[in-house]
Amino acid sequence: MEIFSDKRTPPLRRIEKQYLIQLVNKYRQTVENKQINVVSIRQKTEGWELISREFSSMPNVSQRSGNQLRKCWSNMKQRSKKEKIKTWKHARSTRGGGPSSPPDRLQKMDTVFDCDGFGAETISSEESGNFISFYSFTNF
Prior knowledge:
Elements (H helix, E strand, L loop, with lengths): L13 H13 L1 H4 L6 H20 L8 H28 L27 E4 L6 E4 L6
Antiparallel strand pairs: 1-2
Helix pairs in contact: 3-4
């Protein structure tokens, strides 16, 4: 068990956020589970501690606890939702006119998390007839 002080740590750098996105994507089934019961809450906590261990073992990153990474992930999702809503509002006010192409940072969090329908776009695959949902979020 690692001991982390209550002292404020510096914010995550861009590379650390990219590592976090990769790790959350790797353990998404556990940490983004929507169920709320004793077993799933314990699994989520263990999942975040596993992410913390893997994150801290990567080169050039600060040591972070599972709770710190969970909070950072939550903040990244909230900022992304706000940015997506802002884009939607702009598109509606201009009747569909908006930024011509999304910034590169939009691509970073695609399909990593489900945000209760915000940002969901459904497309149909012509070959298989399947429907695919994907998410794009910004400002992480």
